[in-house]
């Protein structure tokens, strides 16, 4: 069902393409041990540290820990900028993230940003007309209230925290008064309402798309610090989001302690500098408002906070090693627009009109076919049928490992919709890489590896 929106806004003609420096910080560095940088206000004087006690938390089995799980506070701990303060308090942010006032051509986007792993913000590139279907709870309830989507039940993300599915109509009844937070693939019925920008219509981007995902809350959400094993274009449809970005080169220095899902256990509201070495780590503080999009390169560290009624839609695509310009001519003919001129098809193309080779959906469908009428996948069926689905690729031992991963333990069964999510499938990409390499099965999502970082598979998040 397509939602009709009033007040159509045409993209203004003759906009000059400009690259400007994105400045979000004040000048100057921390001048004393007691000065705290406040990343939310941009102030370099957040006050003195008066909240320290005689001990500081440390993990179990640490030789410096006492029996009650604490460690003595040292003078160095007390004077470390950012200790027990919000992520980004260790030093002022970098001032030079690039902004662009329109979507770029596919060629320029790839050559200047994707191939160089350079983040960029696209300011006010989504017209109000293109966002209107998502900006009214009434319209969402009327058009799509019957759809079932995945939700999380804690606004401050905790990996492995409570999650379930619910009807969109029920979510709209609850999201303003509870912690419930929607995060799921954009349902097929809603894909006519979301347009893929011309910037991604050729060169290989479409063929590499993994998922298009919606994030919906009343604001106040806070993610963990994490990386994605894919490229990410995140667009804010309603509300405001604040991104902390850190170059992937600093992952090991900081100390990623959840490599199995590409995240950090750190409390982003009070970073323990004795556990996470943020000293000298440059970072960017990026505010993204309704109508803006941000490109986050593959494996870049990021943490996200949301404010106000908040809807974001992001596109993940596999890391590309080359750009295919010949494809752009075909797209121009098919969609009657010139992708070398972003103004020529600024609104893009409805997602529903694209023929996406969604390997993740294919995998979910294959595994989901084992579920009974009550959505349960029994262990005996999983272990028996999976090797038959992928003969010569998945043996009994691999099937057992996958079952333990999705079920969370040696249980009799697990629920398909709850466990076979995009996130979980991407987390299991190391096991799936064996399957995805088999071309005649149509599953070709290689684990990314650019030669600079290891090929550990990572969780997909905002």
Short key terms for the protein model shown above:
single chain, 462 residues, alpha+beta, eleven-stranded mixed β-sheet, two-stranded antiparallel ribbon, 20% strand, globular, disordered C terminus
Notes on the protein architecture:
With 462 residues, this protein is an alpha+beta fold. Helix content is 22%, strand content 20%. The protein contains 14 helices and 17 strands. It has helices at 75-78, 106-114, 128-131, 137-144, 168-174, 205-208, 251-254, 326-335, 359-368, 379-389, 396-407, 416-419, 422-427, 429-436, and strands spanning 20-22, 55-57, 70-72, 97-100, 120-122, 148-152, 163-167, 181-185, 195-196, 209-217, 231-246, 284-289, 293-296, 301-317, 349-350, 376-378, 413-415. The strands form four sheets. Strands 1, 4, 5, 6, 7, 8, 10, 11, 12, 13 and 14 form an eleven-stranded mixed β-sheet that branches. The protein has a two-stranded antiparallel ribbon with strand order 2-3. A two-stranded antiparallel ribbon has the order 9-15. Strand 4 (97-100), helix 2 (106-114) and strand 5 form a beta-alpha-beta unit. Helix 10 (379-389) crosses helix 11. It is globular, with a radius of gyration of 23 Å. The two termini are 27 Å apart. The model is unreliable at 7-64 and 434-460 (pLDDT under 50).
């Amino acid at each position: 069902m397509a939602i009709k929106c009033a007040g159509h806004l045409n993209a203004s003609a003759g906009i000059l393409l400009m690259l400007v420096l994105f400045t979000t910080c004040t000048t100057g560095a921390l001048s004393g041990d007691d000065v705290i940088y406040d990343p939310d206000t941009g102030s370099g004087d957040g006050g003195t540290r008066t909240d320290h006690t005689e001990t500081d938390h440390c993990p179990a089995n640490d030789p410096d820990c006492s029996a009650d799980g604490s460690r003595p506070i040292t003078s160095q701990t007390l004077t470390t900028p950012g200790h027990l303060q919000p992520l980004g308090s260790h030093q002022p942010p970098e001032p030079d993230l690039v902004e662009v006032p329109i979507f770029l051509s596919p060629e320029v986007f790839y050559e200047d940003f994707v191939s160089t792993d350079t983040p960029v913000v696209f300011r006010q590139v989504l017209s109000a007309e293109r966002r209107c279907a998502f900006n009214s709870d009434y319209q969402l309830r009327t058009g799509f209230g019957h759809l079932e989507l995945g939700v999380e039940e804690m606004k401050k993300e905790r990996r492995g925290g409570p999650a379930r599915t619910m009807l969109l109509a029920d979510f709209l009844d609850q999201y303003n008064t509870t912690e419930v937070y929607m995060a799921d693939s954009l349902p097929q019925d809603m894909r006519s309402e979301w347009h893929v920008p011309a910037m991604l219509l050729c060169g290989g981007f479409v063929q590499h798309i993994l998922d298009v995902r919606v994030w919906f809350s009343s604001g106040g959400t806070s993610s963990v610090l994490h990386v994605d094993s894919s490229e990410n274009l995140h667009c804010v449809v309603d509300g405001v989001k604040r991104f902390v970005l850190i170059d992937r080169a600093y992952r090991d220095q900081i100390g990623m302690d959840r490599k199995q899902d590409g995240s950090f256990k750190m409390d982003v509201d009070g970073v323990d500098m004795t556990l996470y070495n943020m000293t000298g780590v440059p970072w960017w503080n990026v505010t993204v408002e309704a109508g803006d999009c941000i490109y986050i390169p593959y494996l870049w560290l990021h943490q996200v906070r949301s404010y106000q009624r908040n809807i974001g839609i992001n596109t993940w695509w596999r890391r590309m090693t080359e750009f295919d310009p010949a494809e752009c001519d075909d797209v121009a003919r098919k969609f009657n627009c010139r992708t070398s001129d972003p103004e020529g098809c600024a609104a893009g193309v409805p997602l529903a009109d694209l023929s996406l080779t969604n390997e993740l959906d294919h995998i979910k469908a294959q595994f989901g076919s084992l579920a009974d009428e009550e959505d349960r996948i029994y262990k005996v069926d999983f272990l028996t049928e999976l090797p038959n689905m992928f003969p010569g690729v998945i043996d009994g031992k691999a099937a057992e490992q996958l079952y333990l991963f999705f079920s969370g333990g040696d249980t009799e069964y697990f629920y398909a919709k709850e466990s076979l999510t995009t996130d979980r499938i991407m987390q299991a990409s190391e096991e799936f890489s064996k399957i995805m390499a088999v071309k005649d099965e149509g599953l070709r999502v290689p684990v990314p590896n650019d030669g600079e970082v290891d090929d550990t598979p990572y969780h997909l998040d905002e």
